[in-house]
Design brief:
Blueprint lengths: L5 H14 L22 E4 L2 H5 L9 E6 L4 H19 L23 E4 L3 H8 L19 H4 L8 E5 L9 H8 L6 E5 L6 H6 L3
Length: 207
């Protein structure tokens, strides 16, 4: 599947552990089943089963948190500040477009043995606020469909910009792009996203 990069990341992660002679079990991040953590030498990932491992009295395996972006508390703060900014401009709360993570799962970003975040230096710094252990930064993954130079090779393409993203228009800054492009007549913005679930955003920026 190509609807999310984790579809390609998980097999690679499993292959790396397999190459280190680990026997690997995998489960979804929101699984609530009882897990006997005493059977494991290492836990890698995030979510409910990861956090639950800290609530058992048995010896805890080596734990490595896999951060697929900024620290959730840092991300939530930034998104909510954007919502506040828009409210001051337009008098409407667009919280459904902010992608606020309800569960912060603080244990997994404070008690672990190491953190591997995806992203840039800003992502790394967001974890350092809450964690004093080793952090190994990795570039965010993406699905490469077409080299960028082929998209901008002709002069017409250099005036057309394509915004492509999933849910969370405010979280990802679409409102800021709309403000810029509506003041310009020489450049054009094409939006490739399913915004059907963000009706408040669509109403606020319909014009």
């Amino acid at each position: 599947h190509h609807y999310h990069t984790n579809q390609q990341e998980l097999p690679v992660i499993v292959k790396v552990f397999d190459g280190l002679w680990y026997i690997v079990d995998s489960c979804d991040y929101d699984v609530q089943d009882h897990i006997d953590y005493s059977l494991y030498d290492c836990i890698f990932g995030f979510g409910e089963p990861f956090v639950n491992s800290f609530h058992q009295n048995s010896k805890h395996p080596v734990s490595i948190y896999y951060g697929t972006g900024r620290h959730v508390c840092s991300q939530n703060f930034s998104s909510l500040m954007r919502a506040k900014e828009i409210f001051k401009k337009r008098g409407v709360w667009l919280l459904d477009s902010c992608r606020v993570v309800k569960k912060t799962w603080s244990e997994q970003t404070t008690l672990v043995d190491a953190i591997i975040p995806l992203g840039n230096d800003m992502a790394l710094k967001s974890y350092r606020t809450f964690y004093d252990g080793p952090i190994v930064l990795q570039p965010a993954t993406f699905n490469a469909a077409l080299p960028a130079n082929l998209l901008v090779r002709n002069k017409v393409a250099s005036k057309h910009f394509f915004w492509f993203a999933g849910a969370g228009a405010v979280h990802k800054g679409l409102d800021l792009l709309l403000e810029v492009f509506t003041t310009r007549k020489d450049i054009f913005l094409h939006i490739g996203s399913n915004l059907d679930d963000e009706k408040t955003f669509l109403a606020a920026f319909a014009r």
